[in-house]
User: Which sequence fits this backbone?
């Protein structure tokens, strides 16, 4: 959904080039989408800087990928609570948009760097001890992925075993490396063993 016909055409083109995606429709306003959608949608891509309608109109429970130049943390928090699962700059390229769609399909949240930084600024007053605790917390899914890395599985195999996309596997691995402070998969596995995350 985009108010500009040119931008709508561009978004449609990106989605249509992906064989695994089905474009259900294209609309110029959120209200039109809510009243016209007759099929159950998995993901809705919206290009807009006007978030009022988005927060007010129901979107059938679909995950929303939002392209916007809105940056303030309060609006971002409201959008995330309303069902938006990815927030990118309106100037994001096709690869970024596709990554956001895959993430939304898999139930993940994806934020562009400026958006994430605006949220981080809100929590910038956390003590170092609290920050350390948060950065070290590994989720159960990340633990699963880490153990599969220890088995020597590649992204494709991990994706198949967990029933998720390879894009999602990459997100999990990136998060694992960040939380463990590792620069490679091998280092992450080593640290995982030391912390008792990987049984030996």
Assistant:
């Amino acid at each position: 959904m985009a108010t500009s016909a040119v931008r709508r055409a561009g978004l449609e083109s990106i989605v249509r080039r992906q064989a695994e995606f089905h474009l259900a429709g294209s609309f110029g306003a959120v209200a039109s989408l809510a009243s016209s959608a007759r099929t159950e949608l998995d993901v809705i891509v919206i290009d807009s800087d006007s978030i009022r309608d988005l927060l007010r109109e129901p979107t059938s429970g679909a995950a929303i990928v939002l392209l916007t130049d809105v940056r303030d943390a309060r609006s971002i928090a409201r959008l995330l609570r309303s069902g938006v699962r990815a927030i990118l700059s309106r100037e994001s390229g096709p690869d970024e948009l596709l990554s956001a769609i895959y993430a939304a399909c898999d139930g993940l949240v994806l934020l562009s760097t400026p958006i994430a930084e605006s949220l981080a600024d809100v929590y910038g007053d956390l003590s170092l001890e609290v920050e350390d605790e948060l950065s070290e917390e590994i989720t159960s899914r990340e633990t699963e992925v880490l153990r599969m890395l220890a088995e020597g599985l590649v992204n494709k195999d991990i994706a198949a075993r967990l029933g998720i996309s390879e894009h999602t596997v990459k997100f999990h691995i990136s998060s694992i490396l960040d939380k463990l402070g590792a620069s490679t998969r091998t280092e992450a596995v080593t640290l995982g063993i030391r912390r008792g995350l990987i049984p030996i």
Observations:
- The domain at 128-194 is CATH 1.10.10.10 (Arc Repressor Mutant, subunit A).
- Residues 126-135 have pLDDT under 50 and may be disordered.
- Residues 166-180 form the longest helix (15 residues).
